[in-house]
Specification:
Blueprint: E1 2-6, H1 13-16, H2 20-24, E2 29-32, H3 49-63, E3 68-73, H4 75-86, E4 91-97, H5 109-116, H6 126-135, H7 158-171, H8 176-180, E5 186-191, H9 196-209, E6 213-218, H10 227-230, H11 232-249
Parallel strand pairs: 1-2, 1-3, 3-4, 4-5, 5-6
Helix pairs in contact: 3-4, 5-9
């Protein structure tokens, strides 16, 4: 089995998946792939989700993989969904771990209102920016984990990258029809303590779009305490079952 693993916009890929990769076992060639927004000290000029999709396909080509399993968390989940829509023939299956964005159309009034709150983030100072960014994604009363102290050097690049990715979401195109055409198996992990107006509403929408959609709820997890870090063995077992079924059906 061969899989690319895309991280969210905050934690680097190698750190994000350091527990999941060994849990998948020796028979899986699972490769964390960093987001292209971090290819340099600043987001690349003209940054878009197409830049990220091209980067994933380059990584697969460099590995010699014509087809592969793709898993994406948060921002990486948005990239994974975009690739499934634009190049479905390259994927054996899709794994989505609370994708940060899956298109601007077909949103419920509740989800649209919740997503609009992110538009004000770029007016905030960096420390307030990151705190608000986290709060907007959690169920009320759930506290995000404290930031690392001292902050790692890579943390300084996060506000600019988050702003660039948020702009890419606002201007990106990902139609419901293109997702509906993706007929490979889709696995979706949802945190029970994540903000339901965002991730619960999105999950319900995706369940009606993808023809082959399986969801697993991790009741004690939330967007900043995701299963690939907090429950890697359980998630690994689910992904392995998902991948085996996809390959049997291929």
């Amino acid at each position: 089995m061969r899989a690319l693993l895309l991280p969210g916009i905050v934690t680097p890929a190698a750190v994000a998946y350091e527990r999941l990769v060994p849990a998948l076992g020796p028979d899986v060639d699972a490769r964390p792939k960093e987001l292209e927004v971090y290819a340099g000290p600043e987001p690349p000029p003209g940054y878009s989700l197409e830049v990220e999709v091209d980067g994933v396909l380059r990584a697969a080509d460099d590995a010699g993989w014509e087809r592969f399993h793709l898993v994406g968390y948060s921002g990486g989940g948005a990239v994974a969904a975009s690739l499934a829509a634009s190049r479905p023939e390259r994927l054996l299956s899709l794994g989505l771990l609370e994708p940060a964005w899956t298109g601007n159309g077909g949103l419920s009034e509740t989800e649209a209102k919740a997503r609009a709150e992110f538009d004000a983030l770029d007016r905030l100072e960096p420390r307030e920016f990151l705190a608000t960014f986290a709060r907007l994604q959690l169920r009320p009363g759930v506290e995000p984990p404290p930031p690392p102290n001292p902050p790692p050097p890579w943390m300084a690049t996060r506000p600019a990258a988050i702003a660039a990715l948020t702009l890419a979401f606002r201007t990106g195109e990902l139609s419901a029809a293109s997702l509906r055409r993706f007929d490979r198996p889709v696995y979706h992990a949802l945190g029970g303590r994540s903000r339901p107006e965002l991730y619960g509403e999105q999950s319900a929408r995706l369940a009606h779009l993808f023809p082959d959609f399986t969801e697993e709820v991790f009741e004690e997890r939330h967007h900043f305490d995701p299963p690939h870090r907090a429950e890697p063995e359980r998630l690994a077992a689910s992904l392995l079952a998902h991948w085996r079924r996809a390959e049997r059906a291929d």
